[in-house]
Amino acid sequence: MRIEFEYGSYNPSQYGMPWGAIVKLEGWRVVWNLSAGTFEGDSVKGGKVYIKCQPGDIIATGQNFCDREDYIHDGTLYVVEEDGSLKKVGKVTILEYGEGRQ
């Protein structure tokens, strides 16, 4: 299945290109597979992030940004439900959820 997220226009000097990933657990380590997501669009018109995934996968999407002092990595995590809907989760929940999937 393919999940999509829409992003509006952005200033490329302040924001990175939107991204998507599948998130897996290796022991207690969270591993981000950014090759599972693709962004189709540009900074002027915006576009969509597509993530190839399966029900039960943990996915993430986001857009990193730079403030005056640091580059901030910002993303939202979801579990893909059997019907293709998404359940928003946090990192602690991912660790709990992933524990049963290993």
Give your account of this protein's structure.
It is built from one helix and ten strands. Strand 9 and strand 10 (86-89) form a beta hairpin. The two termini are 22 Å apart. The chain has one domain (2-91): Sandwich (Immunoglobulin-like). The chain is mainly β and 102 residues long. Helix content is 9%, strand content 50%.
For the structure shown, list the relevant keywords.
Immunoglobulin-like, mainly beta, 10 strands, 1 helix, five-stranded antiparallel β-sheet, 102 residues, globular
**Strand order within the widest beta sheet:** 3-2-6-9-10
Uncertain runs with pLDDT below 50, 5 residues or more?
none
Radius of gyration: 14 Å
CATH topology, what is it called? Immunoglobulin-like
Structural class of the secondary elements? Answer: mainly beta
Count of domains: 1
Describe the protein's topology.
Blueprint: E1 2-7, E2 19-26, E3 29-33, E4 37-42, E5 46-52, E6 58-62, E7 65-66, E8 71-72, E9 75-80, E10 86-89, H1 91-99
Antiparallel strand pairs: 1-5, 2-3, 2-6, 4-5, 6-9, 7-8, 9-10
